[in-house]
Amino acid sequence: MIEENNKNQNKINENSFLKKYRQQILYFSFAAVMIFLNYTIQWINEVYISVWVSNNLSHISFIQKFYLSKEPYDITELVGSIIAVGITYITKFFLDKLIVFQRKKIEFTQTSKEFIKYFGFAILTTIENLGIQFILSNFLNFPLLLSVVIALICGYTTKFLLDRKYVFSL
User: Fold this and answer.
1) Is 138 a residue whose pLDDT tops 70?
2) What would the pLDDT profile of 11-54 be if each residue is shown by its tens digit?
3) pLDDT by residue (tens digit) across 103-117?
4) What is the DSSP code string of the chain?
5) What residues have CB less than 8 Å from 37, skipping those under 6 apart?
6) What is the overall mean pLDDT for the chain?
7) Do 76 and 46 form a contact (C-beta atoms < 8 A)?
8) b/e burial code for range 92-110 (CB count within 10 A of at least 16 → b)
9) Residue-by-residue DSSP string for 65-76
10) How far apart are CA 10 and CA 136, in angstroms?
11) What is the pLDDT of residue 107?
C-alpha cells in the first residue's frame, strides 16, 4: 500500500514538472512567433500599405500629416509598430490563456482582469528589456544583437513567471 502511494506521488510530481516544462516551451515558442508576427506586420505596413496609402490617399492632409509624415519622426513606422504591438499582445494573451495556462473559461469580467494584469506586466517587462539592453550596450559595451537577445530572454522569463503566478493563477 505504501509503495503504491509512493508511485502515485511520483507520477503526480512528474506530471507537475512536465506541465511546467510544457508551459515554458509553449510560452517561449509563442513569444518567438509573436516576434516574427510583429516584424511581418511592420514589414507589410512599410512595403505595401504605406505605398498604397501614399499612391491613393496622400492628397488628404490628415493622412499626409498623421501617417505619411517623415518629419520629425517616421510616423508610418510608428503607426506600424503600434498596430503590430497591439495585434501581437492580444494574440499572445489568448494563446497564453487558452493554450499555455489552459484557462478555457472566457468570462468577460475575469478575462478583462487578466488582460489588464497581462498588459501591465507587459509594460513593466518592456521597461526591464529596454533597461537591460541600454545597460549592456552603453555601459558594458556588449554588441547590440547580444544585448537585445539577453534583454529579451530576461524580459520574457520575468513575464512568464509573473503571468503564471499573478495573471493565470488558479
Assistant:
1) yes
2) 666 677 777 788 899 999 999 998 889 888 988 998 999 999 99
3) 888 889 999 999 999
4) -HHHHHHHHHHHHHHHHHHHHHHHHHHHHHHHHHHHHHHHHHHHIIIIIHHHHHHHHTTSHHHHHHTS--SSS-HHHHHHHHHHHHHHHHHHHHHIIIIIS------HHHHHHHHHHHHHHHHHHHHHHHHHHHHHHHTS---HHHHHHHHHHHHHHHHHHHIIIIIS--
5) 84, 87, 88, 91
6) 87
7) yes
8) bbebbbeebbebeeeeeee
9) HHTS--SSS-HH
10) 43
11) 87
The pLDDT of residue 4 is above 70: no
Where do the structural domains in the chain lie, given as residue ranges?
28-102, 107-170
Per residue, the 3-state secondary structure of 9-35, as one string, reads: HHHHHHHHHHHHHHHHHHHHHHHHHHH
Question: Does position 132 have pLDDT exceeding 70, yes or no?
Answer: yes
159 CB neighbour count, 10 Å cutoff: 23
